[in-house]
Amino acid sequence: MTNGAVAAALMAGLVALSHVTAARGQELSVDVSAGRLVYDPLSANVSTSSLIGSLRYDTRSDTWVYGTLAAPSRDSTLWGAAGTGGRLMLNRSQLHRVTVGADVGAHGYSFRDRLVDQAGTGGTLEAIPFVRVSQGAGFIEGRAGWRGQTLSFAGVREKRGVFETVARGGYGTTLSVQGDVRWVHAREGTYPFAGATVAYDASRVQLWGQAGKWMATDLDDRVWALGSGASLGARTTVWASVRRDAPDPLYWNLTRRSWSVGLTQRLGRVPAPLVPVASSAAGLVAIRLSATDAPSGTVSIAGDFNNWQPAPMLREGAEWIVRLPLMPGVYHYTFRSATGEWFVPPSAAGRRDDGLGGYVAVLVVN
Known about the structure:
Number of strands: 24
Strand content: over 45%
CATH superfamily of the largest domain: monomeric porin ompg
Structural class: mainly beta
Largest sheet: 14 strands, antiparallel, barrel
Helix content: under 10%
Number of helices: 1
């Protein structure tokens, strides 16, 4: 394994951490963390404790841009990185059961190894189209695309790319389970991987765990990770994680363990509180829409309660109304006009941004 490949592996860990945070809507945030990162420029399993600062901007359309600087606490590697990317989708409304798009990302970094007084630069690039089929709280997804990296260190420049195929499925909201199967196709062979993630995401507490294993003859290492987070008000989150990373066929890094603790501070204006959520007793529940808040023509409704398939509403005087037999639970829904436009008027109880450029309304059935 070359020095450059290991330096690229360090960058891969940074990129992975940047993807752990769930989409937070449009906002600017600062992350400050400390941890033990594994860096291996000269010999195996050399660990360095670093203080890391990141500035990140997330948009409502699931794209992001960030910059990161790491300052080691000992006489070791100083490095920085910046990147942009996101999940680009052709149809952004959550009412579509089939979503087509691509995960794209570009990252550049530089570092200086103080032990050998050498500087290096490099970058990673990925472009992975996907098709996702959703049904209620479950989904299945297929992805296939390319990942590549380049690195210049000590007068040597390296380039490498792999083609990756992924099958993924998951179910759940507050408590969710997701499984992944991957095949990484490199020039020297194909490397299958299988893993699973379990996550608990409540309003103020987040817990998650991952486990997986490479299943090739010359790569059969296990990986695992554990993490937690807690929200301290509307702007601040504290978190911690520990992980064991196996070699990645793109970089061929050594197996390494790392840990980190950190704080995320959201900048700018805190979003306004949600409109009070409507509530109703279980049984035959009436959902009403004022005719003055709807476009002309007929109106339909779609939501969790009917698998997002539009159902007609009835006009009764100055209102559109539908009566549905609902069990206790939290339901999300939206309206559809006669011309096919999806809408939720500002007057709707529980109206909230769906994170995909539109709105949904929320109904709690007790």
